[in-house]
Amino acid sequence: MRNGKDENHExxxxxxxxxxxxxRSLEVDAHQVESFGLELKDGQVFVYERACLQLxxxxxxxxxxxxVANKQRFASAHPNFAEFWRAHKIxxxxxxxxxxxxxxxxxxxxxxxxxxxxxxxxxxxxTEDECSxxxxxxxxxxxxxxxxxxTKIADLGRPIAEWIARIKALLSTHTVALTDDDVILVxxxxxxxxxxxxxxxxxxxxx
Length: 207
Prior knowledge:
Blueprint: H1 7-34, H2 44-64, H3 71-81, H4 87-97, E1 104-111, E2 114-119, H5 128-141, H6 160-171, E3 173-179, E4 182-188, E5 197-203
Helix pairs in contact: 1-2, 2-5, 3-4
């Protein structure tokens, strides 16, 4: 295990801090959306659209965050991202740059004063496939609706509050490969605050 932060680590932490801020904002809107009926009225549509936009931005930050360590490749690839609306095409581009771009939730244990990192079983956290599908579903909510039809809350598969919980479960403690030889362990404590993002540099082997 190697120690010390570098420029890429600092950038990644900044993006994780931004996710925390956006999650706080989304939680407020999600609470309001839960009180809405199926058919949106008056200003409710703006709150709902804002929630979908914020959720999509959070998902995009999760997906794009590892590109902080691929500045040149990002610069050459990024113009193409704007041409793609469907998430599976975006994800394919990201994998071409960094096959291990997606975070892996872990739990930490201490044995004989040695830090052990174990994967977390699926079921509670946002998977890569869910992230991709949800990016698309949120995007569809942001188009101008048919003016002759009522504006309704679309099915996102789960209530927004549940998606928030799965995002937190994914990121609260996770490993991620910024590059093939730079895997980091990230701890995101106290989701009510911007700070509280800590990391350790683990080296080249993902647990």
